[in-house]
Amino acid sequence: MKPDDRRQEIMDILMEAGSASVEDLALRFSVSKMTVHRDLDDLEQAGLLRKVHGGASIQSSAQFESDFRYREKMAAEEKRQLASHAATLVEPGQIIIIDDGSTAGGLADHLATIRPLTVITNNLSVIVKLTAVPGIEVISLGGQYSRKFNGFFGIVTEETLSSLRADIAFLSSSAIQGAAAYHQDQEVVKTKRQMMRSASHSYLMVDHAKFGKPALHFLTGLDGFRAVITSDRIDAGHEAALSDVGITIIKV
């Protein structure tokens, strides 16, 4: 097994278990403990894990939290509630865009009763869920597949989006600071911006923990969305600050 493949599998194990010992990893991959230590050193330098005595554990960071497997597990029930409410904003016959985010992606579970629909998406999980649903036409955005985000991005994705028009775009974001949304990956930012340009209006779906969090790249001001859909667990201070500048908040 190539070192990069082994390190990815180590991360897969940590995603599921939260921690692993050097001894267990050495036995699993049939390599020496020294090789495992080198792998863990490289992954720690990349900010993806934290070495502890005898092994490693996952480390919360913007880079780690961006992995779709991690995002799917975090605030899962809250995200389901946001998706259920977002579905009430969709009408039969509409064309909607769903981005790569796990929060917006949850919308796919609620669309079967709103048919017919056309769904434009770069989210592989959404594509898999909806392609077998009668009455829902799926337009899958091409591009370069990202295992990290479980979606498609790049020039092909953006050019395809620029030739399409939709009624509504449902987007997620990894962080909100002040009255703006941010994301840690510039390619993801470019795709989300094009989704907004391709839709008549957009909604941002974010769980309450995203408010006040940092991320590297500015995505857009929150005034670019018809509303921000979040849970009633949003901090009162964040809610008041956004309301003061005219941002519509939908709490579910």
Automatic annotation (TrEMBL):
GO molecular function: DNA binding; DNA-binding transcription factor activity
SUPFAM superfamilies registered for this protein in UniProt: NagB/RpiA/CoA transferase-like (SSF100950), Winged helix' DNA-binding domain (SSF46785)
Domain HTH deoR-type: 3-58
Record PROSITE patterns: HTH_DEOR_1, HTH_DEOR_2
Keywords for this protein: DNA-binding, Repressor, Transcription, Transcription regulation
InterPro entries from the UniProt entry: Carb_Metab_HTH_regulators, DeoR-like_C, DeoR_HTH, NagB/RpiA_transferase-like, Tscrpt_reg_HTH_DeoR_CS, WH-like_DNA-bd_sf, WH_DNA-bd_sf
Pfam families listed in its UniProt record: DeoRC, HTH_DeoR
Name of the protein in its database record: DeoR/GlpR family DNA-binding transcription regulator
The species this protein was found in: Rhizobium quercicola
